[in-house]
Structure formats: C-alpha cells, structure tokens
Specification:
By secondary structure, the protein is mostly helical. The chain has two domains: 167 residues, Orthogonal Bundle (Cytochrome Bc1 Complex, Chain D, domain 2), CATH 1.10.760.10; 87 residues, Cytochrome Bc1 Complex, Chain D, domain 2 (Orthogonal Bundle), CATH 1.10.760. Helix content is 48%, strand content 7%. The relative contact order is 0.19. About 9% of the residues have low confidence. The structure holds heme C (HEC) (2 copies). One heme C binds next to helix 4, helix 7 and helix 8.
Amino acid sequence: MNSTRLLFIALILAFSESLLARSFAEQQEVGDGDLPISGYFFMGEQVRALQDDDFLNPGMFAVERGYEIWSSAEGGKGQSCESCHGDAAESMRGVAARYPVYDRESAGLVNLEGRINEMRTEYMDASEYPLESDDMLSLSAFVAFQSRGMPMQVDNSGEAQRFWKEGRKFYLERRGQLDLACSQCHDGLAGSRLRGDTISQGHVNGFPFYRLQWRAMGSRHRMFRWCNWAVRAESFELGSPEYLSLELYVAWKGNGLPVEAPAVRP
Ligand code: HEC
Ligand code: HEC
C-alpha cells in the first residue's frame, strides 16, 4: 500500500463518522432512504442558497448566454435553433431528462452535447462546438434548464442495454493508483469527507453545473475526468464512448431525481 493511499484512507476515517451521521439525517429529509439522493443534499446551506436563487446562481449567466445562441442564426443555412424548434420552453421541455439516448444513425449513444453538435453540422451547416467551450456549456445549460424540476427518466432498454452494461462495468471497476471504483466513493462513502468535499452519490441531474472550485461551468464528462484523476487513474476523452456509456449508467441510476441544471456545487 503506498503512502498516498494510506493518507487517503486516514482522511476518510478522520472525517467520516460525523459526516455519515449528517448524510443519514439528510436521507430522512428527502423522505425515502431507497431513492437516489441528489448532490444538493450533501452540500452546505450557503451553496444551496446560491443554487436556489436564480439571481445569485452563477450558472444562470450560462443559461442567458445559451438563450442568445438559441435565437441567433449561424452557419451556411442562415438558421438558428429557434427557426426550427420555436419556443424552447415547449420544444425542449423534458429532453435533457431523457439523455443520453441510443442513436440509430451512429449506432451508438449520443448525449445532449453530441446532439447539439449534430444539429449544427447537419441542419445549420455550422461547425461543431468544441466540448467544454463556453458556447457548448451555455447552449447545453439552456437546453437542460428547460427540463428543470422534471424527473430524470433515462432509458436503458433495447439497444441502449449493452451500453448500460458497459457503463455499469466501468462504474464498479477499481482503477488508478488508489485502486478505487466510482461505486466505492459514491455508494460506499457518500456523506464522508475527501479533502474539502463531502462525497455525494455522484448523480448527474445538475449538469452542466457551476463548480465553485473551478470557477466555471462544467459538463458531466469533465467531472468524470476529475474523478478519474482523483484516484490517479487514466482518464478518457470528453465525448468518448467510455464516458458516454458511463454517463448512461450514472444518469439511469439517478432516474427519478429532478433535473437541477444549472446546479451549483462546491
Ligand atoms: C433545420 C431545422 C433544425 C435546426 C436549425 C435545429 N434543429 Fe434540432 N432538431 C431538428 C429535427 C428535425 C429534430 C428531430 C430529428 C433529429 O434528431 O435529427 C431535432 C432534434 C433536436 C433535439 C433532440 C430532441 C429529442 O427529443 O431527442 C435537440 C436537443 C435539438 N434538436 C436541439 C437543437 C439545437 C440546440 C439547435 C441549435 C444549435 C437545433 N436543434 C437546431 C431540426 C432542427
Ligand atoms: C476518491 C473518491 C471518488 C471516486 C473513486 C469517484 N469520485 Fe466522483 N466525486 C468525488 C468527490 C469528492 C466529488 C465532489 C463532491 C460530490 O459532488 O460528490 C465527486 C463528484 C462527482 C459527481 C458530481 C455530483 C453532483 O452532484 O454534482 C459525479 C457525477 C461523479 N463524481 C461521478 C463519478 C464517477 C462516474 C466516478 C467513477 C469514474 C467517480 N465519480 C469516482 C469523489 C470520487
């Protein structure tokens, strides 16, 4: 066992007891210990207050910028998202709650970011947004925001099933120098402290979110990279098949949680 791993375990033990008690109290707060618990309930009052107030929530800047993009024409066909989809509050309501989905054309999974880029290239004759660019984060935040409060309802049946299985395998596999699986932190240690953070159940219902540590918006895949890095494991590309399958599994695991985008996290 190397020293980093020992230090890590010592940290967990030092902080876990009091905080585990807190997480049980919070389970009661949401009413049912068997339901998934949003990351919202693992953070302090101050961060919750930021998320709850649209005037204070820093993620709302991205949503506003996303609305500008939604309604601006771009690309060779002179179209905007709005030209085809009209009022996003209607046409995009519930969409983010269902993603990622199986896509017949590519015979693979597509997440919201992937769908947005497909719209730009195929329907608008515009270039793809780089993943994690301000424009992509803003437009995906705007689309996800239209589903706020709706329960996550990701489908893992049919063609999606084999990707879901891959995602679950990834989630349960130990990896990195610290030899830890996603499940060991987010199921086993939820409620305990890791450095400055309280470990949540690792759900994706708040994305894209504003992470105070990053002072920036971030996507689900950026968070996966961070978590892989936290255990000194290999990380995958944003938008990679590995992360798409993982995203499907994690999103499905949180089915029933309300979409919180744009969430604020410490
Ligand atoms: C020329 C018309 C057109 C434009 C412009 C367009 N879309 Fe679409 N969009 C469609 C059509 C048609 C579909 C359904 C078929 C498909 O998915 O290809 C669709 C599907 C979607 C979906 C998936 C909905 C679901 O239920 O799964 C999303 C999300 C979406 N569009 C967002 C956007 C965004 C964001 C933009 C701007 C970047 C945009 N669209 C631009 C025509 C358009
Ligand atoms: C060493 C423990 C650890 C491991 C292993 C780990 N994470 Fe995390 N994860 C964290 C911490 C700490 C945070 C930040 C606090 C929080 O939101 O849980 C976090 C946050 C997250 C979040 C954001 C949750 C929210 O509510 O916004 C997601 C999603 C996530 N992790 C997914 C994963 C996935 C998928 C894996 C496996 C690839 C993984 N994590 C592995 C520690 C871990």
